[in-house]
Amino acid sequence: MFDLDTGYTLLLLFCLLAACLFEFVNGFHDTANAVATVIYTNTLKPWVAVAWSGTWNFIGVFAGGIGVAMGIVNLLPVETLVDQNIAHSLAMVLAMLATAIFWNLITWYFGIPCSSSHTLIGSILGVGLAYSILPEATGDAVNWSKAEEIGLSLLISPLFGFSVTIILMYFIRVMIRKTPMEDVVFKEPKKNQPPPMWIRGILFLTCTLVSFFHGSNDGQKGVGLIMLILIGIVPTYFALDNNFDPAKLPASLVKIEQITAGIDSTTLSKNDQQRLTAARQMNHHLQATFRSLKSVSDITKDRKFDTRKDIMLMDNHLNNLLKNEEIKLSGIERGVLKTELKKVRKVTDYSPRWVIVLISVSLGLGTMIGWKRIVKTVGEKIGKEHLTYAQGASAELVASMTIGLSTSFGWPVSTTHVLSSGIAGSMVASKGVKNLQPDTVRNILLAWFLTLPVVMIMGGSLFLLFRAVF
After folding, report:
1. Between 20 and 30 A from 458 (CA), which of 134, 158, 251, 390?
2. Is the whole model's pTM more than 0.70, yes or no?
């Protein structure tokens, strides 16, 4: 299989299975984020809620595109992904998988809403940093610009969820003040008694939206993980999209060449001069490769990864140069350059349909179990009062909006933290900060702050251990 001997083929299959397990665990770890309100408010029976949520998680993976997935893949520079010794690539993959799955399971066991996004990203960063201390490592082992972008999205999204939920709660209260609806919307749900039909409809809709957008964002992380595995272990088959039409690239490469030819290198720093020279050389190689190519699959196996490397490094060099305001390019030229680079990257930024199906099924099935522990935390333990209809609907509406916007920009966010912060915001909107339960909030914040350093250390340590063993 993929020109691997039997032992490595079995390890590859094991890694793919482990990636599906990660997404399965992600599913039942995050299920409560979508179904907590509809179950807790008796809007839907638990088995109906989780089945419905699982279905929309499945659909969301297909509809979400691959922007978030490629953000995960591009955290590790291309030079770090592939080693002449395939065992080293396996060490990287197994370290990431073992770390991510272990931390997800341990936090789920204790009922702590913890971020699968933080877990996966932390393990990837840990592997990259561990690689950087090896004698043979060259260049940056982590794409720090991408890490910074992802870090900001993970930091800002829960703050956004918290603050916008407070505003929404205030707006709802003003709109229905002194009306019969006020007593219904802002009161604790009665045990075993469903809410009025119109409230059920709203909560049903918000549950659906959170499930869909959770699939569109979190599902892509699983897609990105599998692409890391495939590119790392069998790059000759998965470094490039074999279904891409190579005839689309020469025109973009020529435009890039024309714009970069107009840059005066004498005004640049030594590092920027080296970047510009390297980008021009790579563009020349790529034009020679794609000029008369009929199919991407016609590129020889030993050249496929080198071609991917040229594309990604050219993109990296030119995007770094564009950050230099002293480069004399017009706004139109800068815009054209960014557009054409995105067109070229389409041959590297892809995912086979079977990978998306695999992750969709894993996430959908995982969503249907394991929800009880965290539903109770979300419904009862974040605030001192039990969750009301207005609080649940507001938190889920803001969470779905936040996740949907993040997906459209290709940013991975934590569904867990966005919704938990939204619930906290709704509690604060009701009776102020004193309405939060300090112990639960402390545990959630502790998990938020500890996840990245713990999984980075764990992932890096396991990588070095597995690399030595293999």
Report:
1. 158
2. yes
